Amino acid sequence: MSIIYPIFTLVMLTFVIIFAVGTSRLISVRKRQVNPKLYRLMSGYEAPDYVQKLTRNLSNLLEMPILFYVLGVLLVALQIEDPAMVDLAWLFVGLRFVHTGIHITYNHTIHRFMVFVASVLTLLAMWIKFIALMA
């Protein structure tokens, strides 16, 4: 199996959250929960919690996962196919789904942090394995 499938899956999760952010912002304006000017410069007003959670989660999906995407591109470009690496990639993506689920629902900080740490350690293991495969 190829690394491209877990990469594609994480990209799709990111698009789902992008659309959810846009929809939540429209809803917040329609319900008159915020002044539409908030979304011009993202300052001066406070968005409802549900909008803030989705927006922050989108930021999370564009921060650390960049290291995952870079590694994936390297694996594809160098034509490295390693089943253990693909398993780690799926684990990373699964953990990002769990992180997103926690973040946009009940948002328990300790639970979210534990999943975040697990995903960071998984990604670190992937990078270490990549360097070992290159040696």
What does this structure look like?
The protein is mostly helical. It has one domain: Four Helix Bundle (Hemerythrin (Met), subunit A), CATH 1.20.120. It is built from six helices and no strands. It has helices at 4-30, 38-41, 49-61, 65-77, 83-104, 109-134. The longest helix is centred in the N-terminal third of the chain and has 27 residues, at 4-30. The chain starts with a helix and ends with a helix. The model has no long low-confidence stretch (mean pLDDT 93).
The rounded Rg comes to 17 Å
Structural class: mainly alpha
Order of helices and strands: HHHHHH
Q: In CATH's first tier, which class applies? A: Mainly Alpha
The general outline is: elongated
Strand content: under 5%
Low-pLDDT stretches: none
Overall mean pLDDT stands at: 93
Distance between the ends? 23 Å
| β-strand number | 0
Q: In the CATH classification, which architecture applies?
A: Up-down Bundle
